Known about the structure:
The protein is mainly β and 613 residues long. The chain has two domains: 6-14 and 358-612, no CATH class; 61-301, YVTN repeat-like/Quinoprotein amine dehydrogenase (Methylamine Dehydrogenase, Chain H, 7 Propeller).
Amino acid sequence: MRHRTFRQMLDFRRILASVLCTAALAATPAWGIGTLTSPRLVPSAGGDAVTAADQTAYVANASLDRVAVISQTLDISYIPVGRTPRFIAMTSRGFITSNTGDNTVSVQTSGSTAVSVAIGGSGPILSNGNTAWVLRSDGAIVRIDVATLTFTSFDSGLRAPVGHALNGAGNRLYVADASGEVRVFDITASNPAQAMESFRLPGPLAAVVAGGDPRLYVLTDAAGGAFIELDLATNTTRTFGLSGNLQGARVLRNTGSMLMAGFSNGLAFLDLATHNATFLRTGEVRALSSNSQSGLAFAVTRDTLYAIDDRTMEIQSVAVSPDSSDVTFLYKPCTAYVAGPVTSLVHVPCGDLGVGGIRAHALWWVPDGKESGWGMNIAHHGSKLFATWFTYDANGQPTWLVMSDTNDVGRNGYEGALYRTTGPAFSAASFDPSKVTRTAVGNMSVQVYSVNQLDMNATVDGATIKKTLGRQVFAAPVPYCEAGLAPGPLPIYQDLWWNPAESGWGLNIAHQGNILFITWFTYDTDGKAVWFVGSDIEKTGNGTYSGTLYKTFGPPITASPWDPSKVTRMPVGSATLTFNDDDHGTFAYTVSGVSGSKSITREVFASPMTRCR
């Protein structure tokens, strides 16, 4: 049997790659994307590439040499452009197309006309309003002034370019080559052809996007697919590998909070705050899009549109017209436009980014294992959080604090009092809840940004502690959790569990794949708070999980910096959990020679309860 220690389970390198729970595709939670409508099909506006702005969509049709204009009221008109328009983008004057049939670009100059300009080649287009940049297939970069319809060009020196990106400030152009080279150009310089920086990366490369300055990200097919971060301030690179037998890297998108990549057989995601990497098996991903106002992202395969909420990682899908090739989205009317021989219009319910409702129902830690050895379990029911903080006292002994009730302060923010408790020893023949005492030691606030990131701000015995935490991913698939979900076809036991007759101790369960990560908060023989961890409680049968329990020791809660190398651990026994159904089970344990068995049930402290699938 595979066996992992507590430290190994908290080693970021071993848990980076994971799988999104495909059961989320069937879920329709009370909050989030909502139900996608069946698409409205518009055969007369079919095409190969699509863009949108100001309540209007523009679909470039390569076979008819025209752009179909779809108004908010679904009136359709057509604007002739150059031969074989394959790429389209928006500028301050309207659309611009790059035309492979005659090596021109066509710029919309009025509501019904476009002017074509020969630029000696064609390729994908970027635009920052008044200026468009075309990356020609021969490696030349063409700058087009859309007001004057004049252009200049320079040679990037790359002969197999796969993509280009503009940085946020609009003064740097990043160009990636299939060979594995990335070059950075200063497009404000008098001679931009002299690259500022050049990087050699493991290829073949597939795409490049800008990150927050001074970073950029590259998608590579090397080693089964990986994201590579380039930091121009330090000239360093960082690789985030993927698992799951992904093949044929295609496209890359930065939504602001995550990277989304399309492969020939699936979607991959990298949370930029926590570096959690996940993937979802699909068909060939042909295009990606995102919208910062709604927090929604989109992927299109040959015949399916996927809508992703990048805060909650809820995913919904709907069938669209076959041979679809591109997608864009207009915020309010909340419509996705999917280009293909027949254009599909899908209504995707969208709200304002930041409205409350993100479930913090998970095990949390400092990202990248920077403070491996302590963590926080949060159960999230209704608008209440129950947080158990597993840490160490001034002597390095394991202890825990609890925030058992919170106030919802709006926009995914919560706050409440922190308590330290004492109680009967775990080894007591019977647990008397009347002997549990609790003492207020401070308070804590939690701001949830997504299912992968939150900030905690706590005061403990007069000391202030601030941390940014990420959801801990340790196995695949990772469940999707939402308030009001019905139980799924496979039980997911992730939650806070207790024995109602023995209030004062409990068991937190994080459930991913066939692994339970349990933290048992209880009391030692001296009555002080203590916790034991089972970081690899594996499935051994139907509804049965078993593994080793550990006791750990580490730096005090107030240590700054907090040094994970000073964490030690020792095995102290074992645990077996047997579940009768989704909500009831038995917890059997042996710790330091003391054995016991407890009936446990989910602790539901607010409505609606949260479940995971």
